[in-house]
Amino acid sequence: MQQLEALTRDARALALGELALTPYEAEVGRQLQICNACRYCEGFCAVFPAMTRRLAFGQADIHYLANLCHNCGACLHACQYAPPHEFAVSVPQAMAQVRGQTYADYAWPPALGALYKRNGLTVALALAAGLALFLVLALVMNGTLIHAPLAGNFYAIFPHNLLVAMFAPIFLFAALALGLGVRRFWREVSPGDAPGAAVAEAAGNALRLKYLDGGHGEGCNDADDAFTLWRRRFHHATFYGFMLCFAATCVATVYHYVFRWSASYGLTSLPVLLGTVGGIGLLVGPAGLLWLHLHRHPQQGDAAQKPMDRGFIGLLFFTSLTGLALLAGRDTAAMALLLALHLGVVMALFATLPYGKFAHGIYRCAALLKWAIEKRQPNRLQLGSD
């Protein structure tokens, strides 16, 4: 009863214009009211059954549903009210515009939220190039840029403690900033405690990218209304490639601190195998995503976010490319140069993580968890079924 009363109050406040929504949020609310009346797309993804639990859409609801949307594009091509219809319903585009806004709104520290609007391809690659150039100049000044082959001993170029001092603050700050940002998001949209079954379901949906199947298992719509699974596959290659590379770093850390085994490690060692397979995935995935990004239908995303999207894709791609090049050339006289290039790109990637497209995965997982909790609660409106 309390939930119904709250929804009624929100509906009245919206009608009176008392809830201060941004233009993007108001547009999502307008389109969802139309979708709630039509409900043709109810079975496409989690957004639509979650939508039917609401009579009105406040700011927290809009933020939640926008991040629950996976931008598969299926609803755009199925909608009878899509442009050029006068209702101009384009849910993927409207949701994408709000998602970009939420990344900035929940950013920590708040003053850095504006970086989302400037973290484009040029900025990201310029930062990577600048950091790599700084490391190269340091090697030149130290006289170690050109050297005899060192059998892959990276620490002869950059000592282990120096690498830790360089990367630990960046990594810890990125983790802190992302953690505090999603904590603010969760406090706004959270429906209550998370039972274990809901956590397991949300984790499974995130790891399988369930809602990139268009609601029917055939995949997303990209350039047109044809279905394809390539976007899902490239996302999987990117995500699991990144996680395998991260696992390689973690295993190497255990080797160094627990077993006292210093790098370099053999080509058949676990860190190298994990890094190689992950690096290939992180090369193929971003390349494929960039190709799809260049060919996507213009109403299946926010044009203003393209620089941010491509900047993140570019950093992932060059992280893998320089890492694989370093592996191939670690026993040559070019190892120091390759190492400086790789470290520069990796530092730029982690420095921009809290203020780039990486955040979308974190907020989407939180939205999936909210949906997994919410669907286990009674639907007091009885406007739709799960």
From TrEMBL:
Q: Which UniProt keywords apply?
A: Membrane, Transmembrane, Transmembrane helix
Which chain positions lie within coiled-coil regions? none
Q: Enumerate the SUPFAM superfamilies for this protein.
A: alpha-helical ferredoxin, Respiratory nitrate reductase 1 gamma chain
Transmembrane domains' residue ranges: 121-142, 162-182, 237-258, 270-292, 312-329, 335-355
Q: Which gene encodes it?
A: tcuB
The protein's matches in InterPro entries, at most eight in alphabetical order, are given as: Citrate_utilization_prot_B (IPR012830), NarG-like_sf (IPR036197)
Per the record's keyword annotation, is Chloroplast included, yes or no? no
Q: What is this protein called?
A: Tricarballylate utilization 4Fe-4S protein TcuB
